[in-house]
């Protein structure tokens, strides 16, 4: 399986604002990734979601 590579992202104008909930451990990991890669928390979340959707096995 491919690995997710966090990268700086061009911000698009086609966005939707939505609130999500996550546990504290997940929040800390995402915050750490954002800080290490000098990008926003939202950009990390967006990349994780897009990666997951692209690699989703919808057969099950």
Quick recap:
45% of the residues lie in helices and 0% in strands. The protein has helices spanning 24-36, 41-54.
How can the largest sheet be summarized?
A: none
Q: Give the distance, in angstroms, between the N- and C-terminal Cα atoms.
A: 17 Å
What is the SS-derived class? mainly alpha
Shape: globular
Low-confidence residue ranges:
none
- Tell me roughly what share of residues is in helical segments: 40-55%
How confident is the prediction overall: mean pLDDT? 90
Helix count equals 2
Order of helices and strands: HH
Q: What characteristics describe this protein?
A:
single chain, 60 residues, mainly alpha, 0% strand, globular
Could you characterize what this model shows?
The protein has helices at about 25-35, 40-55. Helix content is about 45%, strand content about 0%. The radius of gyration is 13 Å and the shape is globular. The two termini are about 15 Å apart. It has a domain at about 25-55. With about 60 residues, the chain is mainly alpha-helical. The model has no long low-confidence stretch (mean pLDDT about 90).
